[in-house]
Amino acid sequence: MSLVFIKETDKDCKLGLWKINESYEELVGRVDLDDHERERLESFKNPARKLEFLSVRALLQEMTEKNARIVYDRTNKPYLRDNSYRISISHSGEYTSIFLSRTRHVGVDMEKMTHRISRIAHYFINPAEQITTDENKRRYHLYIHWCAKEALYKICDKNALNFKEHLIIRPFEPADEGVIQGYVNNELIEEEFTLHYVRMNDYVLVWCCK
């Protein structure tokens, strides 16, 4: 089994993490797919994308202990067919993460850190945001911002949000794990959010519920 953890993070919020170290045959053998899911799985040409798809279903089965089915809206936002939970999904590298709640809106994002993020920071960092000048922490600090904005983007249903203009992360000092504040402001929403983050070796995981 490649389940890393399932834990309650807030009232009526459940966070799960799966490490993909199985073969395709192992994963496909442990999930129960309906005809639509099998058709979607077979449509993927990339083997890694197939493993991601299967790991999401395997983790969901562990978290719900039932035969939950994921469907997508026109913006590719995931839902459960029976509406038993609100769901947010993220996968990067070897990991898949799911955040669930029966009553609250949820957003989760996970990213494997590379050196590329500094090249695109000007596309998503707002002038009001403060990034450390410590070169040993800068890349990590940028990734927390990126993951936090992805989580906010998901929790707000992707409503016409520009990462640089509409999503602001309040100044904070990066640690191995912590709590930060995010502010969303456009024509459709103006709201403050509390986000949690944790570093796991070369990965950053951020989640938020409202």
Which terms would index this structure?
11 strands, 2 domains, 4-stranded antiparallel β-sheet, 5-stranded antiparallel β-sheet, 210 residues, Ribosomal Protein L22, Chain A, 30% helix, alpha+beta, globular
What is the gist of this entry?
By secondary structure, this protein is an alpha+beta fold.
Task: Break the fold down into its secondary structure elements and pairings.
Elements: E1 3-10, E2 13-19, H1 24-30, H2 35-43, H3 47-64, E3 70-72, E4 78-80, E5 86-92, E6 95-101, E7 106-112, H4 117-124, H5 135-155, E8 167-169, E9 177-185, E10 190-200, E11 203-209
Antiparallel strand pairs: 1-2, 2-6, 3-4, 5-6, 7-11, 8-9, 9-10, 10-11
What best-fitting shape do the alpha-carbon axes yield? globular
Q: Helices and strands, in N-to-C order?
A: EEHHHEEEEEHHEEEE
Q: Compute the gyration radius: what is it?
A: 17 Å
Q: Roughly how many Å apart are the termini?
A: 31 Å
Number of domains: 2
CATH homology group of the largest domain = 4'-phosphopantetheinyl transferase domain
Class inferred from helices and paired strands: alpha+beta
CATH topology of the largest domain, what is it called? Answer: Ribosomal Protein L22, Chain A
Query: Biggest β-sheet: count, sense, barrel?
Result: 5 strands, antiparallel
Describe the structure.
This protein is of the alpha+beta class and 210 residues long. It folds into 2 domains: 3-103, Ribosomal Protein L22, Chain A; 110-209, no CATH class. The protein has 5 helices and 11 strands. The protein has a 5-stranded antiparallel beta sheet with strand order 7-11-10-9-8, covered by helices on one side. The chain has a 4-stranded antiparallel beta sheet with strand order 1-2-6-5. β3 (70-72) and β4 (78-80) form a beta hairpin.
